[in-house]
Design goal:
Elements (H helix, E strand, L loop, with lengths): L1 H27 L2 H16 L8 E2 L4 E5 L12 E10 L4 E4 L2 H6 L12 E4 L7 H7 L7 E6 L12 H6 L8 E11 L2 H16 L10 E7 L12 E10 L4 E4 L2 H6 L12 E4 L8 E2 L4 E2 L2 H9 L5 E6 L20 E8 L4
Antiparallel strand pairs: 1-2, 2-6, 3-4, 3-5, 3-7, 6-7, 8-14, 9-10, 9-11, 9-15, 11-12, 12-13, 14-15
Length: 342
């Protein structure tokens, strides 16, 4: 009986020792390594055990793909994408598609919905997305699992290095996306898009300068010019080529396009004219404006109403603006000079 108690004490001590060793090993395993084990188990249960093939795209896992014979995107720097993404437990996180955003409660009237450009290379999208796109063709769709450590712009030499480092996301995401178009000449792609828009909307076929198109809708006669260092007032409406209105100074227009913001003051805006387009400012605080808008204001004459269309180099370039203007977006502005007394 006494001997049994000694054995029990011995086994208990051994168990505690083993637990200590086990705990030490657990602590030494990084959270990313633990997550990687979970991902591998998840892939086995949901795909391998069901006879489904998963392809490893260098740390990104191809879960599904359509086969489309088309132009490959491999030689392009910019890829136009429609996408939806969710966590591994199926919770939707976002989408470029309006109907899906409405379903998941992420819809906003002021936001743009539609395909967006992803830029490849070190200055563009994260490593995981870039590897997911590699080898695709225009029109093709893919579903991929991107571990969080692949959501980084930093390039490492091996998958082990990626797993050792934290990415820029706290979750592992499943992306479903379709390649709508691809180009290495993003500015020319925009010019082509603008010229198609112009042909449908009665705008001039020729630009006054590269990437900038201007048409007078109402032009009083005789024509006058604003004097330098004077101010005047305008009403304006800005929209994308697809007709989406993203900003306006007119309350009725904001209500019509369902972007009315009760906290915004809708009224004609003060323009501070100058001898050069780049020196024109807006409002009492003399805020600067994008180059295309200032060029249109510089051409504007008293009592004139005009429309200007310009490519993103004269707008918000690769960054876009908030959720309403995506990257590399040509812009359309309708402007009217009006009388107004603050």
């Amino acid at each position: 009986m006494i001997k049994m108690k000694k054995n029990i004490k011995y086994l208990a001590a051994a168990a505690l020792t083993l637990m200590g060793v086990a705990c030490a090993k657990t602590i030494s395993v990084s959270s990313n390594e633990s997550t990687d084990r979970y991902i591998q188990a998840w892939l086995k249960v949901n795909y391998a055990d069901k006879g489904k093939t998963v392809k490893d795209l260098g740390g990104v896992y191809l879960l599904d793909s359509t086969l489309v014979e088309g132009t490959p995107v491999s030689d392009s720097l910019f890829v136009l994408i429609d996408y939806t993404y969710k966590t591994m437990d199926g919770k939707m996180q976002g989408s470029t598609k309006e109907d899906i955003c409405r379903q998941i409660g992420l819809f906003s009237n002021s936001s743009y919905y539609g395909p967006v450009f992803w830029q490849l290379g070190e200055e563009g999208i994260n490593v995981g997305l870039e590897r997911a796109i590699k080898g695709m063709t225009i029109g093709q769709s893919r579903t991929v699992l991107i571990p969080r450590w692949m959501n980084t712009s930093t390039r490492y030499s091996s998958l082990e290095e990626y797993i050792k480092h934290d990415g820029e996301a706290s979750e592992d995401y499943i992306y479903e996306f379709t390649v709508k178009d691809a180009t290495s000449k993003i500015l020319q792609w925009q010019i082509d898009s603008i010229e198609r828009y112009n042909a449908l909307n009665g705008m001039p076929a020729d630009s006054t300068e590269y990437g900038f198109y201007y048409k007078s809708l109402v032009k009083p006669s005789p024509e006058e010019k604003f004097a330098n260092d004077t101010s005047f007032y305008i009403n304006y409406t800005g929209k994308l080529l697809n007709g989406k209105v993203f900003d306006t100074s007119v309350a009725d227009t904001a209500k019509k396009y369902d972007i009315y913001n009760p906290s915004k003051s809708y009224a004609p805006v003060k323009i501070n004219y100058a001898s050069e387009a780049s020196k024109i400012t807006m409002g009492s605080d003399e805020s600067t404006v994008v180059a295309g808008f200032s060029k249109a204001l510089f051409k504007l004459t008293p009592k004139e109403k005009c429309v200007a269309v310009f490519y993103s180099e004269l707008g918000y370039s690769y960054s876009g603006s908030g959720s309403s203007i995506p990257s590399f977006s040509p812009l359309v502005f309708q402007i009217e000079q009006v009388d107004y007394n603050e």
